[in-house]
Amino acid sequence: MDLGLQGKIALVTASSRGMGRAIAEGLAAEGCQVIICGRDKDNLLKAAQQIEAKTGQVITPIPVDLEQQDSISQLLTGITNQFSTIDIVVNNAGGMPYKRHYELNQEDWQQSFDLTFMSQVTIAEALLPLMKKQSWGRIIFVTSVAAKQPGMLIAHSQRASVVAYAKTLANELGQYNILVNSICPSFAVTDKFYEVADEVAKRQGSSREQVIQQWMKSVPLRRPATAEEVANLAVFLASEKASYITGTCIQVDGGFVKSLF
Q1: What are 90-114's pLDDT values in tens digits?
Q2: I want to staple 28 with a disulfide (CB 3.0 to 4.6 A). Which of 57, 99, 198, 219 is the partner?
Q3: Residues 97 and 123 reside in one and the same domain
Q4: Tens-digit pLDDT profile for residues 211-230
């Protein structure tokens, strides 16, 4: 199936590893020129080289700290200096602390707000004029099932804000043929998945394996997703085949969320 992505220019944030990297690789495999970014310059360069070798596409790595507005501004300047337009933006940022409400302080909330919400708003708003100019664009927010089903307090609050922003943005940008959607993964095998499992295990006095086994009891498919399974949806939503899908929030959760809608 031709997804109509050949030659498109895509930005994927937080893409040196995990779901972000899988999405970047998936888009490159479909013929996109991909801009990847992350904090660790060495990991970023390594990821770019590996994706290029695997897909044959040009990958542009730009280091960025998504918690810092100055760093985001440098990222955006780098993009506009090197590219005349941008077609696809996949905002994949987050990673809130695993804490209960009484363990959270003001700094935790502000850090989470800057990383999970404001970084995504800043990037989307800065690149929208390029999409409007060409009357074509895709903005995809990789959030979490925490946006729909309460779990980790800070994650639930911030992820829900991103989904609400995306929904409103979709309503405003439809007239420009710019489609905006959210993806809500649940358990997916990434470094963060194991980091959280280790933290929970430490709190409970159990093992990583026991925590993951307990988590999987709440998933009808009884297993976590792979990063590639999440990436497959992102690539589809970025494509011409998803030309009448906007304002949606789609779960990639193996049936984890219990609500009907």
Answers
A1: 999 866 666 677 788 888 888 888 8
A2: 57
A3: yes
A4: 999 999 999 999 999 999 99
* Confidence grade of residue 149 (pLDDT, cut at 50, 70, 90): confident
Q: Is residue 53 part of a domain?
A: yes
Question: Residues 75, 173: one domain?
Answer: yes
Q: How many domains does the chain have?
A: 2
Domain of residue 203: give its range. Answer: 190-224
3-state SS, one letter per residue, for the chain:
CCCCCCCCEEEECCCCCHHHHHHHHHHHHCCCEEEEEECCHHHHHHHHHHHHHHHCCCEEEEECCCCCHHHHHHHHHHHHHHCCCCCEEEECCCCCCCCCHHHCCHHHHHHHHHHHHHHHHHHHHHHHHHHHHHCCEEEEEECCHHHCCCCCHHHHHHHHHHHHHHHHHHHHHHHHCEEEEEEEECCECCHHHHHHHHHHHHHHCCCHHHHHHHHHCCCCCCCCECHHHHHHHHHHHHCHHHCCCCCCEEEECCCCCCCCC
120 and 196 share one domain: no
Length in residues, the chain: 261
Question: Six-digit token pair at 137?
Answer: 């664009």
CA distances from 132 to 85, 86, 177 (A): 10, 10, 8
Pairing of strands 178-185, 137-142: parallel
Q: Looking at the structure, do residues 89 and 205 belong to the same domain, yes or no?
A: no
The CATH number given to whatever domain includes residue 156 is: 3.40.50.720
Do residues 67 and 170 both lie within one domain? yes
User: Does one domain contain both 104 and 129?
Assistant: yes
